[in-house]
Write a structure and sequence with these properties.
Transmembrane segments: 7-37, 49-69, 90-108, 114-132, 139-159, 179-205, 226-247, 259-276, 288-307, 327-348, 369-389, 409-432
Protein name: Putative integral membrane protein
Structural class: mainly alpha
InterPro entries: MatC_N
Domain Dicarboxylate carrier MatC N-terminal: 5-149
Keywords: Membrane, Transmembrane, Transmembrane helix
Number of helices: 22
Largest sheet: none
Amino acid sequence: MLDINTLIILAIVASIALGYFIKINIGIFAIIFAFILANMAGLSSGKQLALWPLNLFFILFSITYFYGFAIANGTLNRGAQHAIYMSRHFPWLMPVIFYLCVVVFSGIGPGHYAAFAFLSPLIMLIATQIRMSKMLAAVIVYSGACAGGFNPFTLGGRVVNGMLENLNIPAPLALHYTYTYAIGLSMFLAHTAIFAVSYLLLRGYRIQAVENMARPAPFTAEQKRTLWLVCGVFLLIILPALLSSLLPASTALKAASRALNPTFLSFIGIVASLLLKVADERKAMENIPWSIIIMICGLGMLINLAVDRGAVDQIAHWVNDVQGEDSRGYGVVYIMGGLSSAMSLFASSMGAVMPTMFPIAAKIHTEHTALLFSVIAAFATFTGYSPFSSGGALVLAGVGNDAAESRRLFVQLIVLPIAIIICAALLLMLVLSLR
């Protein structure tokens, strides 16, 4: 009979495969497998429930609930419309403005999934009006969301930091200019480069100006209050952490940074939004991505079981054997980057790939740990353009009911990630060979 560690690894693979082929949330299968295998491993009922990654759940729930108010009352969408309207007389600049709008939208807190879902229809609609390539529009939405959505103060960055904390990497080390920052910076640079190349190849500088573009309606009183709340919460999150990194000897700043954590501040923002009646509570709750939360936390149960039983150590040991004794080599970086890209073709980068790959990366003997985490995260998002992945599917959904355009973009979104991976791998090899 197979040992428990082998069964856990097979369960992770089976959860992803079943979720993809049967079109049922990966997390549901992962939860079932986690309970079955935890029973087989002899874990008590209390320890089985403790496998649920509670910190990740609260991060995802609190941040998306808070920003759900800004999405429900149209504040973020209205802000993007005003930014686009201001660039109407400079058609060559419009794709750049679109990209910056998506970066800011995802970067101030709601994360990349919110940008996929809520800005894709708007960008695709304007792309039709100005005769801009829908492929360029897809790059603007997807790469813009990834570029902004993984900084340490937004949803993606907080989830990444939560995953690192689960790996027993101390929070200050994970947050202050190391792994989380490295991942966020890598995402921004890589996806901005993808946008820049796409802008030139797809001739974004030759689009037509929009004639008689209607001026967006001004912000309502509720939307103005929402803007103040979003800015206030964002500043309270970023300032203590930033000042603490600049003044590491200050115990007061360290205490403030710990106390004013994003989860707590998001709940303060939720209460303030309810008291100020900026939007309907039920509509705000509809913007909580429950399917993503179940996927990440459900798979997290299996990952935590794998860590507890030593399955992750076994995989890391195998990778270390393949790499050999040279911890300075980059072979393991290429291996892990290739694996994350392959997984992300059919599964969510943040919901499935990172939770699976990060625990393995933490156990690998290498001098390039920050680079390893960054490559795993970045290469996972490169193939996330695939229409079979959650990100690509949400971008494709923004096209609407145009069947011909949807088919054309569907094919392009299959080809694009392959081209990106090849170019990125060659560029990575070139850069690392010069070090």
